[in-house]
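batch job 7 of whatever, protein = ABC transporter permease
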Amino acid sequence: MNSLQLALRVLRVDRRTRTSAILTAVGVAVATGLVLLLASLPFATQVREQRGIWQSYYNFDTGGTPVMLVTGAKDYFHGEEITRVDVAVTGNTAGLKLPAGISKLPGPGETLVSPALGRLLNNTPANQLGDRFGKPVAALGDQALKYPEQLVALVGHSEQELSATEAERATEAVAQPVSAFPDQEAKADPILTLLAWVGIIVLLVPSLVLVASSARLTAARRERRLAAIRLAGATPGQVTSMVAGETILSAGVGALLGLAISPALHGLVTFVPWGGGTWLATDFTLPVALAVFIVIAIPALVVLAGVLGLRRVLRNPLFATGGHSVKPLRWWRLLVLPVAGLFFLYAVTSMGDSGGPRMVLVGLFLLVASAIVVGPWVTSAVGGTFVRGWRGPSALLAGRRLRDDPKGAYRATAGIVLAVFTGSMALTLLPSFESLAGGGRTYADSVLYADSSPDKAAAVVDHANSTLARYGQQERAIAVGQVYLVQGTGDERSYQRALVMSCADAARLTRLGITAADCKPGVGLYAPYELNAAEYHVVGDPEPTDPGQPLGSVPVGTFKMSNDVSSSYLLDPAAVPAGVKLGAATVIAPTTDADREIVRTALASAATGAEVGSRDQYLYDQQTQLSDLRRVTVIGLVAAGILAGCSAAVATAGSIMDRRRTFGALMAAGTPVKVLSRALRMETALPALVATIGAGVVGILVGIGLFSTAGEGSVVFSPWIFAPVVLGVGVALLGASICTPALRRVQAEPLADE
């Protein structure tokens, strides 16, 4: 009889072994499904970006003869982002390859829209949205969209509308001549890729702990069975193959089950937004070789762990049934955590070197792995405290258990410790990242703006204002120029940006900090401090070869600069010296909540493809990214908490099964079940309390280290940072609650069964 046949016979005749095998298979299935899902996330983002690569990347030379002018920009409607691509045919497009999902190029005045944008156009007045694009003539297919809900418009123009001079093409607001749509390979989202690796580290460990806890349900019975087989003459190789056969059956079935449920997990993840929208079901695909490797590697790890657990039986089988001496854990285990911490600190401080994020991930993995080494020592130390200062039988029983088998006792806490570590790290990073959000251009929150060239700004203003008048609006657009004030000569020259607009307009339309009270008659220059205007020259662009024109004795006023804008001076249009050409221009228009989309439509139609922005839209990407991080954090912590609770419950049950004979003897001697239950809860909850506090502190420190790689800014601590420790202890108590029914089961069964 080979090892697999023997394993099948054991499963048929032993109910507890079947239960352990089923739970092991479930644990392996969960681990396999999670790893397959998380490993597919970088590939999913790459597939998504590949579909939408035609929507951007137009500021490059495609080679060949240009056949069209193209520019890409972002538009917005009530806080929703619209991606628009403006195109004008300039040559023969017979051989032009269109991106998937695009049936044809739009002509002048026509547009192709995504289904979501088409529905929005049908339900919105034209002066608020539709007039920005033209007449919809076709729909974009799903293969042309990053995600199903994406709002996209491919807008057609005449060549004259998008044509520009060579100087104007240096700006992003002007269409570029290209010979083809972009076809380079897209890159995976670096943030989600990093989160996927962190998720694999964070969720795989509690999954494997669940597998190990399931395997321990019949550890004592298996050791006695293997010891008997060894005494009957079986070789170490035969015993090893028997255990490997038992483990392969459950782990193999679990891995195949995880592979089978992975499409369902992928289907659930398609409803989780990332980067502004959800996913297509076809996004989540893994290379076959990688999928096969994962399906084989996880069961192999489980089998390896099971075989390594046979060392005591193979070394001295008599002690498998007769007990064994307990070796105290050495103090050097405590050194593993600071060593891993120092490596992580080195990885964080050398982030810009060749190691990069990979070194940080290795340091994070070492910190997670160090808990496996340090945790049992902490458990043993807690047990020693119980033994020395016990005040009742429950505390003494719990202390003896923690001292005699700290590794087994820590197993119930391992998943919880990791979940608390992850939660504390995440709740340190999130508020700190949120504190970095903000910024924006110098214009007021209610102002819309579109960059233009100085030569075309007046025409854009006239077009926008005539459209606003036709819409019956009172708001009007103005052009704001930009120049630089130069001080000094040679290498000591310094440049300071100055907006060219009136003081009254600046007080009404900017966030510089200037107020109407600061505006004085006759003042031509406003600065945050007193200065001598005669020391400055004015240039359009900061070029070392341009000496500029002297500013002269212009009266200077001062104002208090706002903290969240870049330093800028204000120069009245009448004070600009003759001969100075503006370096840049921006068309701006004030709005109210009632007319914002109408004003945006007028400005967008006048700017012909230039992006119309505002401060809330400037912050759009920040807020979207923060929302994604919050969502992923909540999902990850919930998953880690569930896995940790399950592993704690299974580990507690395994502990009871492992000591079935001991508990049976204590009950037969008259020990109440409630005393044993209290002892089991103490041996689970109190080490968990100590370990989770330590894990919380380490998680906070790791979060501070990771935040330091994001640049400047101070760490922000939220009261929620203590929530993981509280929840961790609660999960430990919840997992330990299984002890009473398990003890009742032991009490109901005859002790002779053992």
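notes: The mean pLDDT is 81.
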